[in-house]
Write a structure and sequence with these properties.
Blueprint lengths: L27 H17 L2 H7 L6 E3 L9 E7 L5 E14 L3 E4 L18 E2 L1 E7 L5 E7 H14 L21 E3 L2
Parallel strand pairs: 4-8
Antiparallel strand pairs: 1-2, 2-3, 3-6, 4-5, 6-7
The structure holds zinc ion.
Zinc ion binds next to helix 3.
Length: 184
Amino acid sequence: MFTMDDFVEEDNPILRKVAEEVPLPASEEDKKVLADLMEYVQNSQDTEIALKYGLRAGIGLAAPQVNISKRMIAVHLKNEKGELISYALFNPKLVSHSIERSYLTAGEGCLSVNRPISGYVPRYARIKVSGTNIEGEDVQLRLKGLASICFQHEIDHLNGIMFYDHINHDDPFNVPETYIPIER
Ligand code: ZN
């Protein structure tokens, strides 16, 4: 299982690299990594396990954050309707997106960033994502709200992009009125 010891520091260049595609069908080694990414996110949301192993809570994780420069992410969260959105994917791809944008009113956080960063992070309000799950099945997702934001955050990690790259540094809380605010 992954613990905080497996995370690279924020200044590690691996977080700025474009991660490699995972050859499919996935090897047992790559499947293990993908399963472990999901296990971390789930464990981190379990108060007892998180406390026992000192895990910082998160709703998503990408392989480069644990020093593996391959295209794999895990997302595990409850959306605004209380529905569980839980996917671990190889080679996730943003297939299309809305013109409309949204942002989290509390800003974003990242398991790779241990300092407070304030400001709104503009994201596409709705996206379509494709990828391959651990069973080797093609997955197509339509996402909005928190789930859309989380998938964009994790896919960004595969392209060497950090959430704060999207913040307007001259005026961090200034976003157009048409952007949809999302409360968490
Ligand atoms: Zn992150």
